[in-house]
Amino acid sequence: MAMEAVRGLELELEDCALPLLAGIVATDEPEEAFRDIDWALLIGAMPRREGMQRKDLLRANVGIFKQQGQALNKVAKKSVRVVVVGNPANTNALVAAHSAPSIPIEQFSALTRLDHNRALALTAAHLKVRVDQVRNVCIWGNHSNTQVPDLTHALWVNNSGQSESVLQALDQDGIQWIQNDFIPIVANRGAEIIKARKLSSALSAAKAIADHVRNWQFGTQGDQFVSMAVLSSGQQYGIPKGLMASVPVTISNGIWTVVPNLEIPEMIQKRINASIKELEDEREEALQFLSLIPSQ
Ligand SMILES: NC(=O)c1ccc[n+]([C@@H]2O[C@H](COP(=O)([O-])OP(=O)(O)OC[C@H]3O[C@@H](n4cnc5c(N)ncnc54)[C@H](O)[C@@H]3O)[C@@H](O)[C@H]2O)c1
Questions:
Q1: Of 98, 116, 126, 143, catalytic
Q2: Closest atom, ligand 1, to C-alpha of 110
Q3: 55 falls in which pLDDT band (50, 70, 90)?
Q4: 252-296, pLDDT tens digit by residue?
Q5: Residue 242: which pLDDT band, with cuts at 50, 70 and 90?
Q6: How far apart are the first and last CA of the chain?
Q7: Cis before 47 (ω within 30)
């Protein structure tokens, strides 16, 4: 059944006549799919069904991402870079990384670029400027509705090409807009799209994956930053060591660096702490499940 859908995708890829598409391997065997790869985009995951407990969803996905991590460990290039999209994306990325000990854990990430792009678009619309005039928004924490879209360090480029603070450009009601509109709209946008489409975001997710990979491969521009969920060092922004948390990063020569020393307002830090707590709880449960699943 799934292979029929894969065949459909294969036909569509051929029809795109992509000049860079050198070939397609259509398979449902991870060890065949991942052999000698440079990039792994892990999109397949168990979706939450009606009546399903969060724990059951986590358990099912731990099984999937353990298997995928083990296959990457066995057959992918040791330089492979991994982007986890399937939800719960941050914790799935952690499970895959734990299951692939021969691949440096810094090469695993989870996608929060879609949330980042949503924040850019909403800010540009609010300021009535083009989206490419806005930069340095960021997303902290989990790719869930506890995520923290943050405009503290966001800039917009005026018509003379100078960068100005977004916070200063917002009117007197700016803080209310951030708390009552901006943060909840971005954080719940995925659910809004599912309600409207009866399916999760697809086109915007594909665009965000392309943005994430392009920046990781070719770097970010100047001191502009982007958001991605990566391994926390335990040294910054009150995020404990060993979580896959979304943070602002710059990227150069294929290496991401967390933007250091940003001042974080108390209101934002409190929200970050709550999202990090959720990630810690997910990690604890996931690692328990992981230890229960026999290795292959
Ligand atoms: N991080 C993000 O920003 C973001 C954005 C959009 C979607 N998502 C998530 O991406 C995932 C995919 O979204 P979708 O709309 O395509 O969902 P979907 O339910 O339509 O597709 C999920 C696919 O995963 C496949 N699958 C199930 N078990 C698998 C396994 N063991 N190995 C490989 N594939 C398996 C299913 O057959 C199905 O085709 C979901 O988890 C969704 O929540 C994340």
A1: 143
A2: 1
A3: confident
A4: 999 999 999 999 999 999 999 999 999 999 999 999 998 877 665
A5: very high
A6: 24
A7: no
Report the nearest-CA residue for atom 25 of ligand 1: 44
Amino acid code (one letter) for 116:
H
Closest residue by Cα to residue 249 from 274, 266, 231, 234: 231
Cβ distance 230 to 239 under 8 Å?
no
98 catalytic residue (yes or no): no
193 pocket-lining for ligand 1 (C-beta < 6 Å):
no
* Cα 100 to ligand 1 centre (Å): 21
> Is the confidence at residue 106, as pLDDT, over 70?
yes
Instruction: Report how far residue 129's alpha carbon sits from residue 51's, in angstroms, rounded to the nearest whole number.
Output: 43
Tell me how far the alpha carbon of residue 50 lies from the centroid of ligand 1, in angstroms: 16
Any ligand 1 atom below 6 A from CB of 64: yes
Q: How confident is the model at residue 100 (pLDDT cuts 50, 70, 90)?
A: very high
Distance (Å, rounded) from C-alpha 220 to C-alpha 215?
A: 5
Residue 291 has a pLDDT of 83
Measure the CA angle with vertex 54, ends 72 and 234; round to 5°: 60
> Is 143 close to ligand 1, i.e. is its CB under 6 Å away?
yes
Pairing of strands 39-42, 81-84: parallel
Q: What is the pTM of this model?
A: 0.95
Q: Are 166 and 127 in contact (CB under 8 A)?
A: yes
